[in-house]
Amino acid sequence: MKRLVMSAVMVCGLMLGSAMAQGEAAAGAAAGAADGGAKIEAAADAAPAKKAGGTGFWAVIVGSGPLGVLLWLALFGCGAAAIYFSVDSFVLIRPQKIMPQTLIEKVKAAMAEGDVMKALHACETEPGPMANILSAGFSHVEEGFDVIQESIGAAADLETERIMQRLTWISVCANLAPMLGLLGTVQGMIMAFSTLATGAPDVGALAMSISQALWTTAGGLTTAIPAITVYYSIRNNANRLILRMQAMTMELIKDLRNVEVVND
After folding, report:
1. Residue 117 lies in a domain
2. 66 shares its domain with 161
3. Domain range for residue 101?
4. How many helices (H) and strands (E) would you count in the chain?
5. Are residues 203 and 75 in the same domain?
6. Rounded distance, CA 220 to CA 223, Å?
7. Who contacts 101 (Cβ-Cβ below 8 Å, separation ≥6)?
8. Residue 26 pLDDT class (50, 70, 90 cuts)
9. What would the 3-class secondary structure string for 95-119 be?
């Protein structure tokens, strides 16, 4: 009888312990679910906040500080200047502008008639690099052919320098843009290491500093690569035109050896 009672008591104890264990497991599962839901809600709340901060190009410019904004303004200005001087050189450094065909025909006709003053008047009516060179030669026609050649050589050097000065500004923009980009890169790295020096760095601020460094480098290269390509392309074209102009000028003045100017 005692054994039966003890057995019943043991069975009841085991059943009670099992029930308590199941209850604790269920409570732990509920708590874990609640914690997981809280984490999901916190992540959901943080995502819009992170998205609202922005990581685009404009955010990089604004977040780069006063020095960074000045660097970006300088980069934009450098790109605008490169475009302006490229278009200006492309429009002005052409055969029609440097050595117009109408001027060549008028000068040839005047020289065929032996009328130097008429050729000089033709140069005055159509000003330009070639007209200026020819005018320098025709103005010294009474001083001999050697003086004419010297005057034309000096005028040709001056006109060549004027043409090349236009191209020099494109080269300046092409060389300045990477330097500005490098300065922005250095600034971004300084900001990044300053963030790391705090001991508990803000990941967002660190990423923004690195973005500033990379964006400025990309901006400088984006400006410099087209500018340097345009510079060498227009420069080669200008050199060809200058050589043609010099050859044509010598062809037009060769008859001055035997020309006599008659003063009215």
Report:
1. yes
2. yes
3. 58-257
4. 9, 0
5. yes
6. 5
7. 95
8. very low
9. HHHHCCHHHHHHHHHHHHHCCHHHH
